Amino acid sequence: MLKSKMKWDFTYSSDSANRQELINELLEQRGLHTEEERNRFLHPALADLHDPFLINGMRKAVNRVKEAIHYGEPILIFGDYDADGVSSTALMMECLRSLGAECDFYIPNRFTEGYGPNENAFRWASAQGYTLIITVDNGIAAVEEAKVAKELGIDLIITDHHEVQNELPEAFAILHPKTSLQYPFQELAGVGVAFKFAHALLEEKPVHLLDLVAIGTVADLVPLEDENRILVSFGLEAITKTRRPGLRQLKNLNSIDGDVDEEAVGFMIGPRMNAVGRLQDASPAVDLLLTGDEEEAQELAGFVQELNKERQKIVQEIADEAEALLGEDVKDEVIVVAREGWNAGVLGIVASKLVRKFDRPAIVLTIDKEKGQAKGSARSIDAYDMFENCMEHRELFLHFGGHSQAAGMTLAEDNIISLREELSRLAREKLSPEDYGQSLPVTMSLDLSEVSLQQIEFVNQLRPFGMANPKPYFHVRSKAKELRLIGSKKNHMKVTLEQNGSRLDAIAFGQGDAYHSIAPQSPIDMVGQLSINEWNGTRKPQMMVEDIAVKEWQLFDWRGTKHLQKSLPSFQKDEAACVTFGLQTEGPGELPVIGFNDSRVKDYSTLILLDLPERLEDLHVLLGEVSPERIYAVYSLRDDAFMQTLPSREHFKYFYGMLKKKKTFDLEKDSALLARHKGWKVDSIKFICNVFFDLGFVTIKDGQLFMNTQPEQKSLTESRTFQTRQEQMEVEKVLYYSTYKELKDWMETRLQITGAEVKEEIGYGL
């Protein structure tokens, strides 16, 4: 047995998986019930974008910007340092420049200024002569800063998408879908809101800006439905064909060829845009997107690439330190971990790592001792709304903002403990134990024969995948034709499944630790995403594995191994024990060695059989008492009784007749002579002598065998020596010389775990 890391949530109940049923199921799961809804989803169209003037304040904001352009009034774009903010800033700059505006941008430094508008920045802008500031991807929480802008005579236009807090800033105009009840779609990213503003300003859809929209929208993890789906679909095409020197250089550096999909943006382009602002001032990322010079673009792309490598290194160092601070046993329902000197720019990524490792919300803070403050980021699990729960204790924060699953914050150092206690208390009140485990939604279970290129090509019509449009996960079950570790560090696993002539290659990245927990003959359950592997002109389906399980007990057939210490995987404390039938006293490593009839044997999920029993009944008794997940058969032969011929009845008859005539028999000399004469083995002769001795037919004294007069008539099978040899032969036949299937079947009939129970578990939820 190998337990899955996540809870598999089967969302499909049919036994069949034909193409049309799969299509209908996937569309139904996305809430698409009518033909019109489905066509709009499968065939996104720019014509379906909503009128930007449905957003409150849009007409007022457009008029103010056009007035500034007409009078040559300078405009400052106030951006943000993440990928959404950077792409929003570049988009608004390009839009305003195309209208002839005198404009520039300002992105606050994450480390010295923090997120969003701040008073010093606004006072600097006023000193530079700016009387109009447009925020992008920030500002909805800037209540005090809006007052400062008004005092300075600055008109402030806020464009944002973050959660609206209790009080709105007193700005010249606020462009925010969630403050516009008449606007049909509430989930635009910051760059999406900026795009709507640009659409209104330009009086036509700015399709030349769609590549920027796709970067910010995918990177910010907003729901990819309605307008976001349209913007990203066309934006990915724009990135594929982009003429921006900066994007082309970044694609080249990361070997992004052909059609660009959401994964290339989410895992390659977006993180690199983010990396700049995480480690320093984010302005070079904006410059990379705006530059028209190839040489500058090459230099900036290389710089961004190196910063991302440095960011990855810093993230791992902080994650290791955070895990060390938390220890193995994390008891708090919400993790709040803090240390002086951590880089504030990467704490959101570290928090995400902690969420995945410990299956609970996490807040990671860096402490500024001089200010007596802590600043950092939060990430959450699906069942815990971080924004909502933090807002219940808004008094603990100096600054706070974000979404249900991600947030940023600054608080007094003295409030860290209170924050941990209060958020954990709320989690205890609102969550059940099941809410903490990661859930893996499974769209459908498929036989290998049902996995086809046509199925996968349809699934790909649902792209771009992301929030609210997740990539479907499929479940398959089969025995492995091949199972091997791959990668330079052997930390990935490749499995070739085979079932009734159908084959499927499955790649499990980062799951090499499961390799030693899967017996070669065990049926494997896998959940993963289907894709098409193209190599040398050949296209075939493959699965990218998300989670693995073996639903039944497993037998690891290592009989006769001489490398036990090296082969055994590492076990958790109290998970495994070595079982002996009397001959072995030491096991591999520090694993406990216990007798087969020890009551503690029931406490272990993994049993390692060190030696063979003298009788099958001993193992029978053991198996009847336990319910293990794994059994390792690692025993070797002592004496090869099974391969030795048991003397026949004629052998015994001849020897008895000879002894009757000779009266005595020298065990040393006469055994050798008889062996040469009859072609018998000396061991067989000694065995016959011991059997006769057991039965009382002879006595043995000083190496001489004497016939007893008038012995009691007995059968050969009454001899303990004869019985022991027969039992040993049967033990070796059943437990050593059997095939894997024969041995597993024999054990399975004697185990408490039954096939019926296993099948019921596998079928649950299907």
Automatic annotation (TrEMBL):
The keyword Protein biosynthesis does not apply. Residues 75-217 form the DDH domain. The keyword Nucleotide-binding does not apply. Residues 554-747 form the Single-stranded-DNA-specific exonuclease RecJ C-terminal domain. Residues 444-547 form the RecJ OB domain. Keywords: Exonuclease, Hydrolase, Nuclease. GO terms for molecular function: exonuclease activity. Residues 334-427 form the DHHA1 domain. It comes from the Bacteria. InterPro entries: DDH_dom (IPR001667), DHH_sf (IPR038763), DHHA1_dom (IPR003156), RecJ (IPR004610), RecJ_C (IPR018779), RecJ_OB (IPR041122), SSDNA_exonuclease_RecJ (IPR051673). SUPFAM superfamilies: DHH phosphoesterases. Pfam families: DHH, DHHA1, RecJ_OB, ssDNA-exonuc_C. Belongs to the RecJ family. This is Single-stranded-DNA-specific exonuclease RecJ. It comes from Salimicrobium humidisoli. The gene is recJ.
